[in-house]
Amino acid sequence: MNVKDLLNLEGKVILVSGGAGSYGKNIVEGLAEAGGTIITASRDLKKGQAVAEAYREQGLDVHAMQVDQGIHESVLSLKNEIMRSFGRLDVFVNNAVARPMRGYDDTIENFAESMRINATGMMDIVREMCEIIGESGGGSVINISSMMGMFGPDLSNYEGTDMGNPSPDYFFHSGGLINLTRYLAKILADKKIRVNCISPGGLFNNQPERFLENYQKKVPVGRLANSDDIKGLMVLLASDAGAYINGENILMDGGMNA
Question: Is the pTM of this model over 0.85?
């Protein structure tokens, strides 16, 4: 098959949780540009609708739905709405995350809230979406983790800034998601569902100049990720071009941890 056909996502219905966020919007855009029908789902429906409308104005097939992955009934409602509207699901990009915790010394209650959404809720939405992917004949799950799930924090990145220290729940969640990917690749094989993970490094988002200076000098390509960097990898893992990639975690950090 021609490589352009392998990478073509036409006819595929793709759910991106947290599709209105910083990386989420880039993921939605890239998958839609490859021809997919994209559903962006998050708690803030109005924000999702604004993102979807902006992409539809560019001729891309993007739709918005609401979900709070910390509430089981909300996950079921999304599942039912997808089936009513599209009758199938081929790809789930597991990208949504909440950040209730602020640094090491934050309350244990905020750590528990993070686990409720980012661990229990995340597992809930993965299982429910995989059920309809399996019923649709199989497909792909792409978990979005972070390089922080593979390495400890480099606190020198924050020297000279007031950004504080990174939160422990982020490392806990990101690391767990990487190994959960391997587990799910084996467990879901009988449903013809591939499961892979992407662990991005930092995305440029107008961070303080000192942080950018500290960070970028450690990256061989000399910068943080931009809005296009994740697109090709997403299309690869969502499409038939990635049909033999399964159970993998792909580090996307510009060579920072090479």
Answer: yes
